[in-house]
Amino acid sequence: MEAVFGKETPTGPYKHPASFTELDNGDLYLVYYGGKGEYANDTAVFGSRKAKGTKHWTAPKVIAQDPFRSVGNGVVWQAPDGVVWLFYVIRFGDTWSDSRIAAKISRDRGQTWSDSSLIALRQGMMVRGRPIVLSNGDYLLPVYYETGGDREMVGPDSTSLFLRYDKKSQLWKETAPIRSARGNIQPAVVEIGSKGHLIAYCRRGGGYG
Description:
The protein has strands at residues 14-22, 28-35, 44-50, 61-64, 70-78, 84-91, 99-106, 117-120, 125-127, 132-133, 139-145, 159-166, 171-174, 184-192, 197-204. By secondary structure, it is mainly beta. Strand 12 and strand 13 (171-174) form a beta hairpin. It is globular and about 45 Å long.
């Protein structure tokens, strides 16, 4: 285990879920979101690189931020065509159940990033895990729909689902949700074999004592 960034890193006292990917040149690229607190409006997604053959990570720099809203849950992933995707959440209200999912891309291994684009417009949509590439070449991004309006508890009707990306249309489309009696969020998925059979594991939702 390696401690990468702690209180000594001047991106704010709050640093939340990290995501990293190995790039096709052997570099490691890491993202996290941070700021004064989980719900602070100054939060941003930060990126850092550990170049192949080196021992140190670069100083984190802002790669995604909204001037009016809080952001969170950065996810970084390099697709087979070399494009690096950054997925993250923009919170439009007081809780994460007011969120939408945004994305940026980089064609130079994270040196520069595109403008931001919303890929999930429905209120309550969030991302946490990296995509997988399906046997037919489509990308499948694990996402979830969070409800409840509570900063401490996920609503029991929260559901896991996926955004499926068709490279020809360049569109992300929602799949059917995974429902359970007390809700579920943050799916992790894998394709079994080459016939499109998927298995997903989800974090339980709210309503537990």
